[in-house]
Hints:
Elements: H1 2-14, H2 28-49, H3 59-82, H4 88-110, H5 113-138, H6 164-180, H7 184-200, H8 203-220, H9 225-241, H10 251-262, H11 274-280, H12 298-326, H13 332-348, H14 357-363
Amino acid sequence: MIWGQLGWIVFLAGLPLAPLCGFGLLDPWNAQTAWAVSCVIVLLGVALAHPMKPLPINRPLGWLLVYLGLCWWVRWQTVMVLKQSTSILLLLSLLHVLAGLCFYWVAVMQWDDTLLHRILKAVACVGAVSVAYGYLQWAGLDELFRNYERSDIRRHVVGTVANDSHFGSYLALMIPVFLLQERFRWKLIAAAAFVLLWPCQSAVALVAAVLGAGFVLVARDRRWLWAAIPFALIGAIWLWMEPHALNPHGRFQTWGQFLDLANRHLIRGMGQGWVAAFSTTITDMDHPLARWKHLHNEYLQILIELGVIGLVLVGWGILDAMRRWWRLTKTPLVITLGAIGVVFFALSSLNFVMHLWQLSSFGL
Length: 364
């Protein structure tokens, strides 16, 4: 089983480095997808050859899979059979759903506390390298990734994900992982990652990082709760005084316009990949919904694409995961996983972390 354990470490720790393996043929985001799907295929094969334990009961995931499968099959019949055309976005949605399902299946068969500690230690080591690279970018010394977006800004901090907002989200997710490690230098690295959020200019990543770090501190020692309350009040006052901090590029207004378009199909949704497909139909680049391939709100996108039914099933799954976590003994590892969940759910409200493997792997 050593090959399966090694495969998980290479897979998850290697995700931030996947763009370097694109050899200039793939952009950083497609390179992550290629890396992730390839690793999941290999891990699935190893798991089938050497199964370890049966799958636990997961009713929310089971019913969500039934709903997604039926929705996808109906769209397949409509697009591929009746219209005699091919939808790349429809096939991509199927690919990612199957890859995520296989990820879950193999993980619950193979993971235990020891392996998870090893995975998070390897992820932390690569994360430390990413933090150092971010500071090089802040100093204007990057020549690999700063030209993907905003090439006119020399000191653009984008990490290896080539986007400042996504890199900020990655740092926010990494801070609980850094805090899990025992030696003091990891606390310094967590502090360095927190400082690096400033040039990323992502308010939601900053808020999520504070929530994650605060969750770790309070869970380990309840006395930190008295310090957390003033910080929460200060944060609430700041958001009240700066309402546009969490609304860059007019996201709130865009959400309303998308809801108006989909309000007649909110029960079963517009279909998987509808938001990205709709953006391709807009030829006028001055249109307010042009270039909006993601809504920057995963819950709203689930509502629009999968409807109320899909959102209820996802919410059921989240509540079930929270219930399972609450019943566990609160070891440092369990607290860290809870903090990662808090950060991930916070980021999902103003970013599309489920659409990028480097970020969605934390949620999985």
